[in-house]
Design goal:
Length: 73
């Protein structure tokens, strides 16, 4: 899932793959909350799963990958 998120960020958000690490925060990469919401919506559509994130404190790619994987299991 982590690699899927990185690929998304490279393609859709025009980020450099070299700049993204599992611990990279969205803020440090210039990803705002709207970008995160759009990414989540695209992933929900692609994966066919609803990702309720209201009470989640997700700030980096690894946390998001882990959260999505927990919803898929």
């Amino acid at each position: 899932m982590y690699e899927k998120l990185v690929s998304y960020a490279v393609k859709q958000l025009e980020l450099s793959r070299e700049d993204i690490t599992p611990e990279s925060t969205f803020e440090s990469l210039g990803i705002d909350s709207l970008d995160v919401v759009e990414m989540i919506m695209d992933l929900e559509s692609e994966l066919g799963v609803e990702l309720e994130m209201e009470n989640q404190q997700i700030t980096n790619f690894q946390q998001l990958a882990d959260f999505i994987e927990s919803k898929l299991n």
